[in-house]
Design a protein that fits this description.
The structure is a single chain. By secondary structure, the protein is mainly α. It has one domain: Globin-like (Orthogonal Bundle). The chain contains six helices and no strands. It is globular, with a radius of gyration of 15 Å. Keywords: Cytoplasm, Heme, Iron, Metal-binding, Nitration, Nitrogen fixation, Nodulation, Nucleus, Oxygen transport, Phosphoprotein, Transport.
Length: 144
């Protein structure tokens, strides 16, 4: 079964909730990542020299890019059944040493952040839609 119109709509609508408070949700996202994988801090240029996760334009921009890429993945999965990226997105992850366990940590942080942003709109169906979209993105990044 392919990615459904309803799944795409769930990802799109909840990504808009993230955009309502990107500073707060960006800090939450990276805080969760670093709680699970403290060594990942060195992979993010905007975090590696900081004492902790502090809101900054670069942090916010990167978080918005990540969430936007997952949203775009949902659109691609619905339209074509696969996610296709330009080579840059995959190569930077290889260059930074991103491994499978890192993708798991980011997925968990992404889901927890969207759950927080969604509030009472959160559901297992919403979670599953984000999981499938993220998994499609992760697969494309690893293949790039």
């Amino acid at each position: 079964m392919g990615f459904t119109e309803k799944q795409e709509a769930l990802v799109n609508s909840s990504s808009q909730l993230f955009k309502q408070n990107p500073s707060n949700y960006s800090v939450l996202f990276y805080t969760i990542i670093l709680q699970k994988a403290p060594t990942a801090k060195a992979m993010f240029s905007f975090l590696k020299d900081s004492a902790g996760v502090v809101d900054s334009p670069k942090l916010g921009a990167h978080a918005e890019k990540v969430f936007g890429m997952v949203r775009d993945s949902a659109v691609q999965l619905r339209a074509t059944g696969e996610v296709v990226l330009d080579g840059k997105d995959g190569s930077i992850h290889i260059q930074k040493g991103v491994l499978d366990p890192h993708f798991v940590v980011v997925k968990e942080a992404l889901l927890k952040t969207i759950k927080e942003a969604s509030g009472d709109k959160w559901s297992e169906e919403l979670s599953a839609a984000w999981e499938v979209a993220y998994d499609g993105l992760a697969t494309a990044i690893k293949a790039a």
